[in-house]
Amino acid sequence: HDLDSSEEAPPATQNFIIPKKEIHTVPDMGKWKRSQAYADYIGFILTLNEGVKGKKLTFEYRVSEEAENLVATVVPTHLAAAVPEVAVYLKESVGNSTRIDYGTGHEAAFAAFLCCLCKIGVLRVDDQIAITVFLLFATFPFPVMRKLQKTYRMEPAGSQGVWGLDDFQFLPFIWGSSQLIDHPYLEPRHFVDEKAVNENHKDYMFLECILFITEMKTGPFAEHSNQLWNISAVPSWSKVNQGLIRMYKAECLEKFPVIQHFKFGSLLPIHPVTSG
């Protein structure tokens, strides 16, 4: 499943709607798995996974205004009607204002926000998307959430404890492992090596994530991040990447506590996937 939204930007007559929750009980999860939204969301994640393969982060890793300006100015006037629908996903992605928690559901909302921008033709899914994703993900959710976690020690939403991959995020591990596929010398075993991480984290999302974990958690890596420790024994980055995609589907996209918060509209609809 591939999104080539540059050709299929929706007609200006499309009726945009404010997205709402549709997954109220565990049996509703079947509707999600069969939905157009699920097909489009996972298709988008996998397209980006291909787009970043073997690429370094091509910019300095710091929070910049570019992400905000990009979002503020991206939607052309003839698509102004889409703004309220698309904006819901951006709002959902910044976490819960009453309970200070943050987790993979919020991260999914941000990915859904980017997916919607592709569906209305504002972002193009081509090589540029890799740079856009690095820019947007690396300038908005990651540093902002890390700052919040450092400052407030935010509680992770639905933490798996030491058995989860990471309390707060998952996608940068998927895309980050894709970045490292066929790297001339960095292998999965190197991400538990402090020197390798310190020397390469600015170029690779995966190592940036590891650096952050080691800054936030104390004690032996094998104890506080058992899943990642196990992954460091996998022989190749492509195997790591495939395994993480399977794990993301099972641990995030197929878990009711995460998906009950996901919202559906005209761009990411709950109706069953239509072939074509």
Q: Could you characterize what this model shows?
A:
The protein is mainly α and 276 residues long. The chain has one domain: Phosphotyrosyl phosphate activator, C-terminal lid domain (Four Helix Bundle (Hemerythrin (Met), subunit A), Up-down Bundle). It has 14 helices and 4 strands. It has a two-stranded antiparallel ribbon. α8 crosses α10 (205-216) and α9 crosses α10. The radius of gyration is 18 Å and the shape is globular. One of its GO terms (cellular component) is cytoplasm. Its EC number is 5.2.1.8. It is found in: Cytoplasm; Nucleus. GO terms for molecular function: ATP binding; metal ion binding; peptidyl-prolyl cis-trans isomerase activity; phosphatase activator activity. InterPro entries: Phstyr_phstse_ac, PTPA_C_lid, PTPA_sf.
